[in-house]
Design a protein that fits this description.
Helix 11 links the parallel strand 6 and strand 7. Helix 2 packs antiparallel against helix 3 and helix 8 packs parallel to helix 9. Helix content is 50%, strand content 13%. The protein is of the alpha/beta class. The protein is elongated.
């Protein structure tokens, strides 16, 4: 693995490799055309590489940053062969991810000094938000943690019912009210219940309506304020769930949600069904928000803690 330190178990790494297969195949088929018949990294190669990165949903700004870094290396080293391009790209992408994801978590643990640890989950409908919450609850429970779910997406009856299905499947309690109830009231009741149960983790689902950013901002602000009446520093993490298969649309969602509330971490889902895995690199870089989890399959164990080195290794393997 060259300079990459391996920390994943072999089965998790195999799942990650498989989940990024479509992205890797698409990217390297394009990259091979760029370097075909070329021996030196020159302006023409860099121009074509720029197109490859942008078409792989890395994003324009991040692509320009990567190209700029490679140009600096070409200038410094005077000669770079195309055979070295894979390793150079690998190092530069890992470097970019390292700027945001300073320390990767090894497992689904939470800080011991935050009890209950309150996680508020945001994201538009259809990105896999409820599924991510369910899988998170399962992983936390597997760590021996007591988890309580809060169904504060009261805008849709389906959202409440879907979360109930996951709570039953995982075997964790859920606090819910009727559709149309005040989301902040649900969040308040959830934290009160969690405290009384001596729970370790609380996961609060929220509505993901972006058609009116002011309303969304007000709603999320109110939920936070009401939760703080029970747990003074809640929420400890605001997790934005994005659908990796939507490519550039995921960038727009990230932009809108970061304007509406303070997002502290990201989960990027559905990477296994798309060739747009480069979006993880771009979003992490552009928004300076750490990617905490990635979804690389349908199974309950296919939500993984994001590790930048393992991700880049699978991408370039």
């Amino acid at each position: 693995m060259s300079f990459f330190k391996k920390i994943f178990s072999s089965d998790k790494k195999e799942t990650l490799d498989k989940g990024l297969e479509k992205t890797k195949t698409s990217f390297f088929s394009k990259l091979s055309k760029v370097v075909a018949g070329k021996s030196k990294v020159d302006d023409e190669v860099l121009d074509e590489l720029e197109e490859v990165l942008i078409s792989s949903d890395v994003g324009v700004n991040t692509t320009l940053k990567i190209i700029g870094r490679i140009e600096e290396r070409v200038e410094r080293d005077k000669y770079l062969g195309t055979a070295e391009l894979n390793q150079i790209l690998r190092e530069e992408i890992a470097g970019l991810l390292a700027e945001t994801n300073e320390e990767d978590a090894v497992d689904f643990s939470v800080p011991a000094n935050k009890k209950p640890y309150v996680l508020m989950v945001v994201g538009v409908n259809g990105v896999g938000k409820t599924t991510t919450i369910g899988k998170l609850a399962a992983q936390f429970k597997k760590q021996g943690l007591n988890v309580v779910l809060g169904a504060a997406d009261t805008f849709r009856a389906a959202a409440i019912d879907q979360l109930q299905v996951w709570a039953d499947r995982v075997g964790v309690p859920i606090v819910r009210q009727e559709m149309g109830s005040d989301p902040a009231s649900v969040a308040f009741d959830t934290l009160k219940s969690a405290v009384s149960k001596d729970a370790d983790v609380v996961i609060i689902d929220t509505a993901g309506r972006l058609h009116n950013k002011v309303n969304l901002m007000n709603e999320l602000t109110k939920i936070k304020r009401v939760m703080q009446k029970v747990v003074t520093d809640a929420p400890h993490d605001v997790l934005l769930v994005l659908d990796g298969s939507t490519g550039q649309n995921a960038f727009e969602q990230a932009k809108q949600f970061t304007l509406a509330t303070e997002v502290t971490s990201l989960a990027v889902t559905k990477l296994d069904g798309t060739a747009k895995g480069g979006v993880v690199i771009g979003i992490s870089d552009q928004f300076k928000i750490p990617v905490k989890y990635i979804g690389v399959g349908e199974g309950i164990d296919d939500l993984q803690v994001f590790n930048k080195f393992e991700f880049v290794d699978s991408f370039f393997k």
